[in-house]
Recover the amino acids of this structure.
């Protein structure tokens, strides 16, 4: 089942929480009902805007989040997080010629604009320097990331000076 | 232009012009070992250089990990009297653990006819 067809994340709805499309019900709200012991039948009866497939999608989304496997393909990300800035992480990636191809992608954060996206990227990159993050707007048709190699700056750091 | 020496590396001040505003940026490393020029996001954000939807994205891979950068054509990149118009720079976080706001690369230095005088710590330009 493709949860991307049922769940939407957008800064315009419910402050960016994942929401069941066509409703104002957050995914976490539905999950909490199940945790509290509501049966699916009771949920559908009390929230007539929801379908069986919606409840399945909520569970599927929660599972994907836990596996940090939220989405694999850029086209799916664009559909689930329309028209917004995201910080994404390349869980698996490889390079072909000078193109960086992201094989598995996780959505880390949604940001209100390009400035916020750059700030979020800097914060995450500083905290997790070994992880590969990108700041991207879902309006772009392709990820199209190019790679450049860099040897780095070699300065005379006093701690390593051979004097 | 006086070069500042810090940790045996040479730094200069550059002036960036973009969409009608400009900023002076200090602590820019003069680097003949870099083909391209990059400026720190924090230094250029005040003049409106922030990520935009259809930017070209690069991943810079090297010792110590990777860094994501975007590129932008600025109106002008200038050092004292020498300016290059319509100049493309990379913009990145540049958290390298010391004070650096950019790297001035060979794309600028060669085009500008830079003369790097380390005896007198001066960056000049040929006629």
């Amino acid at each position: 089942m493709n949860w991307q067809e049922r769940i939407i994340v957008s800064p315009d709805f419910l402050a960016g929480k994942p929401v069941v499309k066509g409703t104002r019900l957050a995914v976490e709200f539905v999950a909490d009902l199940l945790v509290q012991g509501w049966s699916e039948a009771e949920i559908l009866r009390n929230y007539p805007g929801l379908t069986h497939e919606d409840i399945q999608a909520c569970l599927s989304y929660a599972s994907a989040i836990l596996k940090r496997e939220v989405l694999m393909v850029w086209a799916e990300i664009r559909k689930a997080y329309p028209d917004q800035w995201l910080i994404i992480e390349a869980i698996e990636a490889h390079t072909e010629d000078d193109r960086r191809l992201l094989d598995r992608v996780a959505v880390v954060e949604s940001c209100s604009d390009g400035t916020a996206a750059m700030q979020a990227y800097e914060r995450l990159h500083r905290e997790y320097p070994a992880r590969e993050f990108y700041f991207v707007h879902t309006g772009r048709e392709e990820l199209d990331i190019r790679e450049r190699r860099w040897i780095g700056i070699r300065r005379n750091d006093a701690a390593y000076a051979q004097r | 232009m006086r070069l500042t020496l810090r940790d045996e590396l040479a730094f200069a001040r550059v002036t960036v012009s973009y969409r009608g505003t400009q900023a002076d940026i200090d602590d820019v490393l003069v680097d003949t070992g870099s083909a391209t020029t990059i400026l720190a996001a924090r230094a250029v954000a005040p003049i409106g250089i922030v990520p935009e939807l259809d930017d070209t994205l690069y991943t810079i891979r090297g010792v110590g990990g990777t860094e994501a950068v975007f590129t932008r054509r600025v109106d002008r990149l200038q050092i004292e009297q020498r300016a290059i118009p319509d100049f493309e720079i990379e913009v990145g976080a540049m958290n390298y653990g010391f004070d650096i706001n950019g790297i001035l690369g060979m794309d600028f230095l060669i085009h500008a006819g830079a003369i790097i005088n380390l005896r007198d710590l001066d960056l000049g330009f040929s006629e």
Q: What stands out?
A: The first helix of chain A runs from residue 27 to 35. Chain A is about 30% helix and 25% strand. The longest strand of chain A covers residues 99-111.
